[in-house]
Amino acid sequence: MTETLTHILPGRHLDLFIKKATAAVQDDPFSTLLILPTSNLVREVRRRLLDDGISFIQSTVTTLGGYADAVVDTHAGGKIRITNHEKELIISVLLQSRDYPLLAPKRKPGSGIAKELRILFDVLQEKKIDYPESLGLLQSQKSDQIGSVYSAYTRYLSEEQLLDEQTNIEWATKQIDADGGPRSVFIYGLYEPFAIEKDLILALKRSARCFEYAIPYLPESKCFADDGSWLQIKSIETIPTDTLPPLARFFDDQNPTTIRITAYRDPLDELRGIADEIHTLIDEGTAPGDITLVFPAIADAVHLTEEIFSEYGIPYSTSTGRTINSAPIIRSLLLVLTVPVLGYQRDDLLALLKSPYFRYSWDQSGELHHLDGAKVDSLSRRSGVTKGRSDWHDRITRQIQARKADCETLSEERRIYRMREIEEDFAILTGIESLFEILETLTSDQTLTDHLRRYRSLLTTLTLPVIQKSGDQDLVEDEDRALLAFTRILDRLELSARIIPERKITAATFLSLLKTVGSKTRIPTERTRHAVQVLGIREITHLRTPHLFIAHLTEGTIPNLSTRLPLSTNLETKMLGTRTGPEILREERYYFLAALASAEETISLSYPKTDGEKVLLRSGFLRDLPEYENEKRSYKNSRLARAEAAGSLLEEGDYAGAYSLLPQDLDLEMAAHRITIEEYHRSGIPSSPYDGILEDDEAILTSLHERFGDEAVYSASSLERYASCPFAFFARNVLSLEPLPEIDLDLTSLERGNLIHRIAYRFFRERSDRTIREENLQAAIREIRSICSLELDLYARNNPVWTVEGERLLGSDEIGVGVLEEFLRYEMKLNTSPFVPAHFECSFGLPLTGDGDPASIRDPIVIPLDDESAIRLSGRIDRIDTTEDGRFCVIDYKTGNSPGYRDITKGRALQLPLYIRAVELGMGLIGAGGAYYTVKKGEVKCQAVIRDAAVEDYFKTFSRSTGGGDRPLPEIISESLGWVRGYLDGIRDGRFQTVADEKDCSEYCSYKTVCRFNKQRLFEEETE
Ligand code: SF4
């Protein structure tokens, strides 16, 4: 028997070792074994053997765990191997079977506890720790309960003939001791094996005739402690000190100054810098496969790498794909379960319906209807749906009823249109409810097997996911891989269900199980050695690469020194004798050194100085390395950066320069034209069709004259919209673009305004005595509060925000007097003026309703303009107060800010002057003034903004604007009509420019996302 122990540095002696193992394989192919430390190295060595034309059995070259699996699969008959995830499932079920009050109170294990126990059990098994006895005096109720679960778990494995990763190794060890193992065993590069792994290695040694063990070890080094003496091999080959490569003592001597570290601003900047360097290397002739990029925590870096490498067009290959939960197709499948489990929340349902992988149609009266996400979104906003299933039904039904009732006030044409809309809303509600009924079948408590069966059968019934086979081929393949991985998860869970104790679990637990497994499962990536290799730092150990990049070398990421065991204190961890801080530090150093040792020609180290928010420190492993600040940031190889540079060159007129930077198939003229639109036409004074100036287009002008000519009926608010921004008028009134209604738990500003209008209207209309005095004040307060309560009930909301809203109106002990009482007290003050409230919601040019103000007029009011033309106006006036001498004041209620006198004289506010003139013409009264009545908590006032100087006395008890009573009222109205004349010309002549200065735009403008001021607009289009 020959036994050799060789001390090696990471990656060294591998070729020689493979050579020896290959010779043994050729001599004795069925009884030779080559054990390697990582599956990455296994793959590499297998590839090399195949390249050299050497045939071998796959299980001949494997990892230690892989070898144990092969032994169990060959010899263990009825034994079943379980994964870590299944181990957690078993622990979770055991926690529910008995009361472990500290771990799972009331038999309900908290989230993550099964995983923590699994990790703890892994360590106890690997290190062969007697638990809880090893804790000695530190034993406690908690450790006793953990110990009980541990015993129950090991008992369960043995009774059910199951093997986890650790018992698998133990079983293989016993098998070799009983029946012998391979005759020739070569083990290369294992770093500090665990106790159970050592047992297996020793069993292999005992049965082998030839045993060669290469161990990474260098005496007096901070990276190595295991010299292999536990193998008790006499023949030891050590590393001759004169052959040590310069980096071998990286941690023992001063850091070599030949390696530099580059500091970047943030991770994005860092990856772009690296991608740029890699691109340059490839341009200079380096094969992509000769470049390796390593991350200490690769799982966190895959997303960004994918994004940046595709931006730079760099081919890459990685063992670590994205998690399947991050794939949109899988998110959509999970939403099918999330929607019913979380009670049909609005955002979840919309995310599902808007997913391209989901489609739902239902049969209504023999016709198939498709449930459209955008339409459901709009309907839910209009109806104020914010919560779960009953909210969808109640709110939408209420909204449909309210719209039906509203139909009475509409013209015939509008009514027909509105009825069609209502029918559509009703159909959508039917579709939503039929989908809810189907999804509801997933929500009952069932066994895991039944949950899986129902879920899979529902996906089949609904033909989900919807897959587009055309389009971006890479995307299609990516989806296929994610879907296959998800299907495997479901298959695997079905198998798991057979080996764990079956009991009913909630749909929420089933969903969380799927999500947890999905978050740990990565989409398999296609591996190719001809692309840049992107690896985790432990994967590169013992491999060789000409050009090495190690990124994200920050403190905390490497070294990562978390030592404490789950569910254990630091003292307990120490007592159990698991890994100490110095041991972990040594291990981290070893893997870093191994990564450095893999580089044959160049090494580039880097770190980001911030993560975008907080400052990051560079890894303490790099303490003496000189630092280089990357400030050039031109990123010449980035597709986006090149496009940006080309844009600048185009702007300067350098077409040839721009052309050299852009993809060959790009239509340069078209690109230049688009840039010109953005940079030239849409800047400065609006003067082109791209900014709403359509005056040169005859067809458009003809159409505008038809729609907005002399016969058109205008409202004051549409004219005010044109006054404040012609572009907004164009979007709303010409193109009929309607922004989606805001969704708000609170009252929207529109709802709040409507509520006050309704209350004030009902209060005055239902009273015969409309003046409020001291003697009828209390009765009036009771009356208006009762109206308010009835109106609030109509909204059927009962969240805390709504309760506060009610309190604000009605008043309470906490907030004192409510807005409505403040309003009535103010009315009492107004009562001393000659005005008396006379008309409410008086309309003109709108359909008449049974309960409308009797003075309402069906036809629009035709208001003459100065140039002998006229405007046809429609509208509804909140309130008209009259005097005994035939004068009147138009009043408009406001719950937000109201315009001032200057807004009227500058033509921005037209409502009061136009309404005064309309009442004069329609009722034959003489205008005295117009007022905005502000009704909000702490601020109730009726401000007469314009008033006839001749009757200024009438307004003594009103709040009065400065300047508003200095001129005769007809003069002010005539001035407003002059503005109206200009607006009509602007509309009919196609002048729909944006406002001159962005500062003048309203913060709440509904069209700010589509006008020229939103530079994001193009970007959003691109990223959709
Ligand atoms: S953001 Fe300004 S310019 Fe743009 S539509 Fe609104 S008001 Fe007009």
List keywords for this structure.
34 helices; 1024 residues; binds iron/sulfur cluster; elongated; 29 strands; single chain; disordered C terminus; seven-stranded parallel beta sheet; alpha/beta
Q: Share of helix among residues?
A: 40-55%
Shape: elongated
* Percent of residues in β-strands: 5-15%
Helix-strand category: alpha/beta
Low-confidence stretches: 1020-1024
Number of strands: 29
Q: Distance between termini? A: 68 Å
Characterize the main sheet: 8 strands, mixed
Helices, by number, come to 34
Question: What is the structure about, briefly put?
Answer:
The chain is an alpha/beta fold.
Describe the protein in words.
The protein has 34 helices and 29 strands. Strand 12 (361-364) and strand 13 (367-370) form a beta hairpin. Mean pLDDT is 89; it is low at 1020-1024. Strands 20, 23, 24, 25, 26, 27, 28 and 29 form an eight-stranded mixed β-sheet that branches. The protein has a seven-stranded parallel β-sheet with strand order 11-16-10-17-18-9-19. The protein has a six-stranded parallel β-sheet with strand order 3-2-6-7-1-8. It is elongated, with a radius of gyration of 39 Å. With 1024 residues, the chain is an alpha/beta fold. The site of iron/sulfur cluster (SF4) has 12 residues, from helix 26.
Write the layout of secondary structure elements.
Layout: E1 2-8, H1 14-27, E2 32-35, H2 39-51, E3 61-62, H3 64-75, E4 80-81, H4 84-97, H5 113-126, H6 141-160, E5 162-163, H7 165-179, E6 184-188, H8 195-207, E7 210-216, E8 236-237, E9 261-264, H9 267-283, E10 291-295, H10 298-312, E11 316-318, H11 328-341, H12 346-354, E12 361-364, E13 367-370, H13 373-383, H14 389-406, H15 412-440, E14 446-447, H16 448-461, H17 473-499, E15 504-505, H18 507-520, E16 532-536, E17 545-550, H19 570-576, H20 581-597, E18 599-608, E19 627-629, H21 639-652, H22 655-661, H23 668-681, H24 698-708, E20 713-715, H25 716-724, H26 726-734, H27 749-765, H28 777-795, H29 800-810, E21 811-812, E22 816-817, H30 819-830, E23 836-844, E24 861-864, E25 870-882, E26 887-894, H31 901-905, H32 911-923, E27 926-936, E28 939-947, E29 959-960, H33 969-988, H34 1016-1023
Parallel strand pairs: 1-7, 1-8, 2-3, 2-6, 4-5, 6-7, 9-18, 9-19, 10-16, 10-17, 11-16, 17-18, 20-25, 26-27, 28-29
Antiparallel strand pairs: 12-13, 14-15, 21-22, 23-25, 24-25, 25-26, 27-28
Helix pairs in contact: 3-7, 4-5, 7-8, 9-10, 11-12, 11-18, 12-13, 13-14, 14-15, 16-17, 21-22, 25-26, 27-28, 28-30, 32-33
Bound molecules: iron/sulfur cluster.
Residues 725, 727-728, 994-995, 1001-1002, 1005, 1007-1008, 1011, 1013 line the site of iron/sulfur cluster.
